[in-house]
From TrEMBL:
Coiled-coil residues: none
Classification via Pfam families: HTH_3
Species of the source: Tissierella simiarum
Keyword annotations from UniProtKB, A to Z: DNA-binding
Entry protein name: Helix-turn-helix transcriptional regulator
Domain HTH cro/C1-type: 8-62
InterPro entries xref list: Cro/C1-type_HTH (IPR001387)
Amino acid sequence: MPKLICRLKRYRQLKELTQEQLADIVGVRRETIMRLEAGKYNPSLKLAMDISKAVNTSIEEIFIFD
């Protein structure tokens, strides 16, 4: 089964956003962002799209199936 690698933390920090700020932008709780960055949560397609727009990076750069 493929594993999802999430590089969200890197791109969030490049945009100088806190987890709380990103969560507010995409309409989720900070805990959701924290779990994504820890690899403990797989985002819905809509959430992945919203995150990629917020950090101005393609979904494929942030979320990688290995």
